[in-house]
Amino acid sequence: MTKLKVGDQCPEFSVKNKDGKEIKSSDFIGKKPFVLFFFPNNIGYYCKSEVCEFRDAYEKFCEYGVEVIGASPNTVESHNKFAKKHKIPFNLVVDEGRKLAKTFGVDGFLITDRVTFIVDVSGKIVLSHSALLKSTEHIEESLKLVETLKAN
User: Fold this and answer.
1) What are the catalytic residues (predicted)?
2) In this prediction, what percent of the chain has a pLDDT beyond 90?
C-alpha cells in the first residue's frame, strides 16, 4: 500500500497498548485530534530519542487537546517495560505483524519506517512527516501543526 498523505481519511484501526488495553481510531475521531507516530523498535538511539522527545513535549500536545500514540511492532511486555523505564505518559501500541504500518503505508522492507501522522478531529490526515534519523523534526513539525489546529 502507498503511504497515506495529507487529505486522506484515517483508516479504522484497533491495537493493544502497553497495558494490553484496546486502542481504536474511533476513540479519537469525532472527539479529539491525535498524533500517531511509527518507530521501528524500543531499542536503539533514534527510537528511544524520538519516543522520549514526544514524552518531553507531551504536556504541550495536551494543552492543544491532542493525544499522542506511538506504534512499533514490540510486544505489550516490551512496551510496558520501556514505558516504565522512560516514564512515557502516552499510549505505546503494539503493531503486531506491522499491520498498522502496512495500513498507513509505512512498512519498510525490513523495519517500520519512522513516520508521524496527525489526524484532525474529523479523521483527516493533516500531517505526514518522515525523517529517518532526525527524531526532533517529528516533534517540531507536529507542534507547529497542532498549534494551528488549536487556532482554527
Assistant:
1) 47 (cysteine sulfenic acid (-soh) intermediate)
2) 62
Helix, strand, coil share of the chain (percent; to 5): 40, 25, 35
**Helix (DSSP H) and strand (DSSP E) numbers for the chain:** 4, 7
For residues 5 and 151, what is the distance between their CA atoms, to the nearest angstrom? 22
pLDDT digits (tens, 9 = 90+) for 107-150: 876 666 778 999 999 999 998 887 765 666 667 777 777 777 66
pTM above threshold 0.85: yes
Domains of the chain in start order, with CATH, are: 14-151 (3.40.30.10)
Rounded-to-integer distance, Cα 152 and Cα 55, Å: 25
- CA–CA dist 69, 6 (Å, integer): 18
Would you name the residues annotated as active-site residues? Answer: 47
Q: End-to-end CA distance of the chain: give it in Å, rounded.
A: 32
Cell of 20: 494490553
Length of the chain: 152
H/E element, 81: helix 76-86
